[in-house]
Each structure stands twice: as structure tokens, then as C-alpha cells.
């Protein structure tokens, strides 16, 4: 399994890499990293086909994203876990209204 720091994710995002936030919708709406798509972990089993290979997976602290990466690997979808999640994110978070 691959892991990446939030600092390395910032550099990767220059190339428009896909990012999926697996927190619940209410958490995502309170603040998420720019460009991240929300697919809650609770819905991932039904929506995993929406995740492209080589997507970066993020949550609040890195625990749920780790579980999501493990699950996606069983479906043959290679992804990367973002260590520390949005708690470690140094940049601005986008809030949904």
C-alpha cells in the first residue's frame, strides 16, 4: 500500500490528480481540500467504481482513508492513502454551504 504526506499531495495536485475524501458528507461540507470529491466510506462499497486508479484518498486523520485504500485494493483499484488527513493539511479548506 502506498502512503503520501499532505506536503507531497500538494505537489502532486499541481498535475490535477484525483482526490477522494471518504469522510461523511457533513464533515466534507465543513471543510475539504480543494478539488476533492466526496465518497463517504459508508457508501464506498456501492460507489467504488467512481474511484479512478491512482486516486489519492483522504479523511480526517488517515484511519478511514487507510480502510478505503485497503478495500479498493481488493477491487483491483490502486490508490494512495494521505497520511494525517485534513488535520495535517496546511492549506485552506473549502466549505460547502
Brief summary of the model shown:
With 97 residues, the chain is an alpha/beta fold.
Write the layout of secondary structure elements.
Elements: E1 2-4, H1 6-12, E2 19-21, H2 25-30, E3 37-38, H3 44-47, E4 55-58, H4 63-74, E5 79-82, H5 85-88
Parallel strand pairs: 1-5, 2-3, 2-4, 4-5
Feature tags:
5 helices, 5-stranded parallel beta sheet, single chain, alpha/beta, 16% strand, 97 residues, globular, 34% helix
How would you portray this structure in words?
- With 97 residues, the chain is of the alpha/beta class.
- 34% of the residues lie in helices and 16% in strands.
- The chain contains 5 helices and 5 strands.
- Strands 1-5-4-2-3 form a 5-stranded parallel beta sheet.
- Strand 2, helix 2 and strand 3 form a beta-alpha-beta unit.
- The N and C termini lie far apart (35 Å).
- The model has no long low-confidence stretch (mean pLDDT 96).
Distinct helical segment count: 5
Number of beta strands: 5
Categorize the overall geometry. globular
Structural Rg: 12 Å
Strands ordered across the widest β-sheet: 1-5-4-2-3
User: In percent, how much strand structure appears in the residues?
Assistant: 15-25%
Q: Largest beta sheet, briefly?
A: 5 strands, parallel
Q: List low-confidence stretches.
A: none
Mean pLDDT across every amino acid position? 96
How far is the N terminus from the C terminus? 35 Å
User: What's the SSE pattern?
Assistant: EHEHEHEHEH
Considering DSSP H and I runs of 4 or more, what fraction of the residues is helical? 25-40%
Give me the secondary-structure category: alpha/beta
Amino acid at each position: 500500500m502506498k502512503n503520501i504526506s499532505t506536503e507531497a499531495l500538494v505537489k502532486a495536485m499541481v498535475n490535477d490528480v484525483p482526490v477522494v475524501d471518504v469522510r461523511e458528507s457533513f464533515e466534507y461540507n465543513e471543510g475539504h481540500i480543494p478539488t476533492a470529491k466526496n465518497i463517504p466510506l459508508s457508501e464506498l462499497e456501492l460507489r467504488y467504481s467512481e474511484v479512478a486508479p491512482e486516486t489519492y484518498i483522504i479523511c480526517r486523520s488517515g484511519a478511514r482513508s487507510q480502510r478505503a485504500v485497503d478495500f479498493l485494493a481488493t477491487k483491483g483499484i490502486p490508490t494512495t492513502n494521505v497520511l494525517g488527513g485534513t488535520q495535517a493539511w496546511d492549506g485552506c479548506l473549502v466549505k460547502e454551504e
